[in-house]
Each structure stands twice: as C-alpha cells, then as structure tokens.
Amino acid sequence: MTIERSPTIDRRRVIQALGAGGVLALAGCVGDEEAAEEDDEETMDDEDEPAEEEEEEEEDEELASLEETPQGEPLSEEDIQALVAAFDDQPMSEEQHEIEGEERSYTPRHVWKWVSDETLIGLHFDDPNPEEATALDYITVGQKGLFTEESQPDEEFSHFHQHTAEGWEAGHGGETGDEGYWLTHMAVREIEYPFHDEPIDPQVDYGFMPTPPEEGSEGHDVAWEAPDDGEGDLSDDDRDQLIELFDGEWTNEDQQEANGYTPSHVWKWITEETLMFLHWDEPNPEEAENLLYFGIGERGQFTSDDIPAGQEDDFTHFHKHEADGWEAGHGGQDPEQHGMWLVHHAVRELEMPFHDEPTNVGIDREFMPTPVEE
C-alpha cells in the first residue's frame, strides 16, 4: 500500500504569513482603537459644545447692571435752601461776607462746613447769594495752610484764599506766607466761567482761578485760628442733618446693606447725571464719628470713553448700580455694564487697606482702582 504523504509545509512561509497576519491584525486593532477614540472624542466634543454654550449663557445671565443707571432728580429749590442752611460755618472774616441774605450773610456763591481741625467742605452756587441760587456749580474742599509752595497740598488745590481780607476779591491769592485755605473745586455740571476758555463738564477743575505761589517758597502752618474759631469734627447733630439731606439712591436694594444705606455712603443727586456723596468711617452712617471723603459721581458705562473728562487718575473707581451686594458692585466685567464713575477727595489723612502708605488730604488716586481693560 502506498502511503500518500501530505504536502510539505514551508514553515518559513507560515511564519511569514502569521507574522503578516499578526501585523495586519495589530494594525487593525490600533486603527480600530484610534477610530474609536476619534469617535469618542467627536462624541465628547459634541457633548461639550452644548455645555460650553450653556456656561456662556449662564455667564451672560449672571452679568448684572446691563440696564442704564437710573437718572437722578436735579436739586430742587427746597434742596438748595436746606443745603445752604446746613453748611452754616463762617471760616472767612466778616469783611468778606459781602452778600446779605434773609437768613445770614455769605461769602459770594459759597457756603462752608468744618469737618476736622484742618479741613472744611463747601458748596459753590450759580448766584452770589446762595439763598437765590438755582443750581450748584462746584463742591469744594479746603485745607488750612499758608500761601507758599510748600504748603500747597497738591495740584488740585489750584486756588488759595486768605481767611482775613478787606473783601472777597482781596482774599484771592495774597503775599507769600499769608494764612488761609488751599481749595479744590470739583465741577458738578456743565458750566462756563471767565477763567475757562470754554465750558467744562463735571470734573476736578485744575484750572479754577489759579493762584500759583512763589516758586520755592517755604513754610507751612495750620496752628492759627479761623475767624469763626469753628475748626473741628462734625457733631452728631451735624452728621445727622447731612445724612438726612443726602437722601438720594441709585443702587439696587441688595447693595443697601447697612441699615438701609450703601455701606459708609450717603448720596445727593445734583443733576440727572451727576451726584455728590459723603463717605464715612462706619458702614452705618448713623454710627459714624468722622467724615473721610467728599466726592462726586457721574453716570456711565465701564469704558474708558465714559470716564468723566478723561480723568482716569482721579475717577479711579467704577461701581455698578445693580449687583448681589455692595462688594459685588465694585468694578465691571464688561463694557456694556452701567454704573457710576466716582472720584473720592479725602478730607483728612487716611490709611485704608488699598493704600501702601497713609494718604493726605486731596484726591485719592489710589482709591479702590477698577481699571478698564482695553
């Protein structure tokens, strides 16, 4: 019997075939995994896109203060009369009280109030007789000193006025070393005065009746007594009277966290666009002992174009009119947001958390900066 042998198997070919098959199989696995990963990634991407869109929508929903800041009520005749009555100090000599009103005599256009041993605040009206005024032109801060370069606190104190003179005009400027007050004036509406070439809008008025002191002149003294001997902090009665008069509001209720007040602040609308404010040393103004700042605010949006008069070094702080709380109102996140641009003028030496060192009386150019990202 003849036995038929099976064909001989070429082991080398089998190994090559297996090897090739193995490589192909491996390649197929890798390809399948990559394809699967790509499919998974596409699926995840598809799943992520709506999530990202939802997050963006949530962020848009959370963005507050997109409606215009409420407009204010301009000062009424009653408001002006009440303010004139409250600012009842007389830091100038009697000869300068050239305006006789029904209630008392006045320095032309001005009324004053002492707020510390060295500083006072004032209101500058559109009529020489404050009792007959129809509008407020400036708010003012004064610092006791001498008519010298050394005594001038800073550039915003453009005007020096002697406390004792033969008349109001005679009190402007003076001789080197004269005693008096260095004054800052902040315009609170569009106004036109002879010392300006054209009308100006609300701003720190660095050009208000300049009285430059003698260059290099030395000397500084605040120990002298004012004609009314009225220096000193506000009394509790004075504080309460001012709080009652500064009865405006422009934020939502969520920000009125301190016994119905926005913390440390009380506000008074001057025009539909501009307000003035008092910033105290306690969150609840009714418990305050001292006034820290006197300032102004202007309606606008969180853009550099809306910073009043382009004074970004002075109007350092933007505050939204709508927020979940007072802290949440500081600054903006989007140029479409509305609020108030604020300038804070210190009325005493202060040391606040946002200061590297104590700040002197003057515009606080480090007050809680909220820079606009261009």
TrEMBL record:
Region Disordered, annotated ranges: 29-79, 212-236
InterPro entries associated with the record: TAT_signal (IPR006311)
Stretches with biased composition (Acidic residues): 31-65, 226-236
Protein name per Swiss-Prot or TrEMBL: Uncharacterized protein
